[in-house]
Specification:
This protein has a single domain, classed as Glycerol-3-phosphate (1)-acyltransferase. The chain contains ten helices and seven strands. The chain has a seven-stranded mixed β-sheet, sandwiched between helices. By secondary structure, the protein is of the alpha/beta class. Pathway: Lipid metabolism; Phospholipid metabolism; CDP-diacylglycerol biosynthesis; CDP-diacylglycerol from sn-glycerol 3-phosphate: step 2/3.
Length: 255
């Protein structure tokens, strides 16, 4: 049964990517409305969740302020985080995504047409330019979604955050909205290919205001955001913070 479910998922992934990608490109070309094209992404995400037999419990919707631009920061366990956020986060947003995704035929072109922003982590100058572009868009009213870990966690445990996404949020002066994603690693872990139907819990946290913070405060902001996400994860997924790890080592050395 799991093999049949996996086959259905990959078939849907292929067909929906082609159909929804073409729809998104066509909508932008005909209407110049990237917000309408974003709806294709929502449909794409929900179709692939359905095909994989994945249900999503969404919590914290009352905390959303969809008409206020923000940087949405989520932990990253699986491909299914992307489907979940696209399908279930009811706000207009654009992705800050690794450049490799934009090289995928049709899919990458659709992403560019909708207005998603590529970031080349191998080129420091280009990465900085992407962050500047993203912070400008947020200031002008466009919400951005980031994965501060930079890539999927191999074991499902939240990893240290990279500074780039947090810097763009501070530069934008707009709030960071923490989004906790729990359960997606069990559905399709990094390096795996067999899909396991299951349930994902997506929890939207209280916005963290960045007004008043400077670049020198970025480590403090990273701590605040990571801790805000971590409290919506299971004990195993949340792991330990660096400060807790240090405290444990100190206690062990003293005993």
């Amino acid at each position: 049964m799991r093999y049949l479910r996996t086959a259905l998922f990959y078939l849907m992934l292929l067909v929906s990517t082609v159909v929804m990608g073409l729809c998104a490109i066509g909508i932008v070309l005909l209407t110049r409305r990237s917000d309408w094209a974003h709806l294709c992404g929502r449909i794409w995400g929900n179709l692939n969740l359905w095909a994989a037999g994945v249900r999503v419990d969404v919590m914290g919707l009352e905390r959303l302020k969809p008409y206020r631009p923000a940087v949405y920061a989520a932990n990253h366990q699986s491909w299914f985080d992307i489907f979940t956020i696209l399908g279930k986060l009811p706000v207009q947003f654009r992705w800050l995504a690794k450049e490799e995704l934009f090289r995928i035929p049709l899919f990458g072109h659709a992403m560019r047409m909708i207005g998603y922003i590529p970031i080349d982590r191998a080129d420091r100058k280009k990465a900085f330019e992407s962050l500047e572009e993203a912070s400008r868009r947020v200031r002008e009213g466009t919400s951005i979604v980031i994965f501060p870990e930079g890539t999927r966690s191999r074991d499902g445990v939240i990893q240290p955050f990279k500074k780039g996404g947090i810097i763009l949020a501070i530069k934008s002066g707009q709030p960071i909205v923490p989004v906790g994603l729990s359960g997606s690693h069990a559905i399709l872990p990094k390096g795996g290919w067999l899909v396991r139907p299951g349930r994902i819990r997506m929890t939207i946290g209280d916005p963290i205001e960045t007004a008043g913070f400077t670049m020198e405060d970025r480590d403090e902001v990273i701590f605040l955001v990571r801790e805000a996400i971590r409290k919506y994860l299971t004990v195993r997924e949340g792991g330990v913070l660096e400060a807790e790890s240090t405290d444990t080592e100190v206690r062990s050395a003293a005993s």
